[in-house]
Amino acid sequence: MIALKIMNVKQFMGKLLTGDDFDTFLLEEASIRTYNTFVIDGHQNKDFYTSEEWEDQSIRPYDLSTWKTIRPICFQLIKGKHTPAAFQFVLHLMPEYTASVLHKGDTAISPQQIRAFVLNIKYDGAVLTLVTGTALHTFLPDKTPDSLWDQAVRQFLTKREIAYEEL
Questions:
Q1: Torsion angle defined by CA atoms of residues 4, 78, 14 and 8, in that order, rounded to the nearest 10 degrees
Q2: What is the pLDDT along the chain (167 residues), one digit of tens a residue?
Q3: Helices (H), the chain
Q4: How big is the CA angle at 126 (ends 124 and 132), to the nearest 5 degrees?
Q5: Cα separation of 36 and 75, whole Å?
């Protein structure tokens, strides 16, 4: 787990809310504090779908909503004359990318053992930080997946020319 301070908040927010840079993520939860506090639960509602739609992987491939789908809603809540008082997004890397993160290291951990590679994005009104995390299906003494995810996030930011500082 690492914590990174984003140096250019405006540039980062442009990439997060108007670009496709983060479209390989799913949203677990969003909390946005502007004139109200808005909370979005990224878990899809079974009651909304027919039983056939719920089971159809082409309609609902994930249990969480994609960031690409929720991004415009978050953008509408944040945009305006005033800077948000605060926000937090909990994103999960899409499961199909887990193997490529693990492949870059020497580990016996399989993608099936990883529940999610998590990226927490938090803004407190002044500072924007990213915190990485790894959610596992069961306890594993091998911390290699954590290190590989930390490295992947650093590379992700560098490739997109997002300046950061490690905290």
A1: -40
A2: 999 999 999 999 999 999 999 999 999 999 999 999 999 999 999 899 989 989 988 888 999 999 999 999 999 999 989 999 999 999 999 999 999 999 888 788 889 999 999 999 999 999 999 999 999 988 888 889 999 999 999 999 999 999 999 99
A3: 9-18, 51-55, 67-78, 98-103, 144-159
A4: 55
A5: 15
Tokens, residue 27: 């949203």
pTM for the whole structure = 0.93
Tokens 């809310």 correspond to 17
Buried b (16+ CB within 10 A) or exposed e, 23-60: eebbbbebebbbeeebebebeeeeeeeeeeeeeeeeee
Which residue has 């509602």 as its token pair? 45
Among 25, 89, 33, 31, CA closest to 62: 25
